[in-house]
Amino acid sequence: MRVLIAPDKFAGTLTAVEAAEAVATGWRRHAPDVEVDLVPMADGGPGFVDVLHTSLGGEVVEATVSGPHGRSTPGRVLVVADVAYVESAQACGLHLSGRREPGRATTSGVGELLRVALGAGVRRIVLGAGGSGTTDGGAGLLAALGATADVPLDAGPDGLAGVTHVDLAPAREALGAVELVLASDVDNPLTGLFGAAKVYGPQKGFAEEELPRVDAVLEAFAAACDRRTSLEKGAGAAGGLGFTALLLGAVRRPGLDVVAEAVRLAERMASADLVVTGEGAFDFSSRSGKVPYGVAQVAAEALRPCVTLAGQVLVGARETRALGMDAAYSMVELVGEERSFADPAGALADLAERVARSWTVGE
């Protein structure tokens, strides 16, 4: 029997790579002869580079860049042949900002990572956008690539107040003929009721009463750059980082699709008998571009059964099937919430061992 293991990260506890290894460990306890294929997954957010490096190999270029509040933070660019993969969360992730002073949080470090990628002489750069702690419309990225304006571009949305003119030419020249791909599952526009500030601002630390002001600043920034681009799907990704990428000529693709194609998910699934995916919490939001739902769709096309292992399962059996899963299993139900957080790898391995009893065939 062949089992393909393709989980997302378990946010706050396990990376996708760690989760895949834990599932494999538990499964082998029950069925040591089962052949497992580990394909940790991501959607463009945190873990994007590590997941691709695990499956693709390539060269990792280490760098030190600016975090959302200017403090130096380590970054890694993956170079595979003539393609570079950049994970924006490494430079502007919510885990770095801690929801502190969101009005000053900048994406400058993401632009610095792009410069590292450009220095590798690649033909294409794939920018994974997700999990950000910033809402600066990607202005900091532009500044790092040489763009200028009549206000500071690298001081967060607060610094953009009063903007009327932005010179994008230096940033476009810095990219030259390099193709830019925006990998993101978020399809929000930059501004408005469904924009970056109104929808995602609160989770980044903005109080409800601050949102109209931040949205107005982004509106002015869009008017100074290209208002039409700000209305495109994905412009609101990563606090507006998507807007900047689109301004620079990026082609937007769903992050999960980018990863699935790069790791040859469909091809590897064709030789599997069972697909196992997972994430921290499996609920109806899992349908909104999340990894387990996407993996289940590929499994359905390959006519392979798919089950999910999660920290918590917050839907019933009927809803689970509606999300494309044959079954869903919860760590919390098996070992309790305390152990699930105290020893997530061990708890997930125990859950996988238990699930293997029901799904391993040919013993």
From TrEMBL:
It holds the Pfam family Gly_kinase. Belongs to the glycerate kinase type-1 family. NCBIfam families: glycerate kinase. Transmembrane segments: none annotated. One of its GO terms (molecular function) is glycerate kinase activity. One of its GO terms (biological process) is organic acid phosphorylation. It comes from Nocardioides daphniae. This is Glycerate kinase. PANTHER family: GLYCERATE KINASE. Keywords: Kinase, Transferase. InterPro entries: Glyc_kinase_flavodox-like_fold, Glycerate_kinase, Glycerate_kinase_RE-like, Glycerate_kinase_sf.
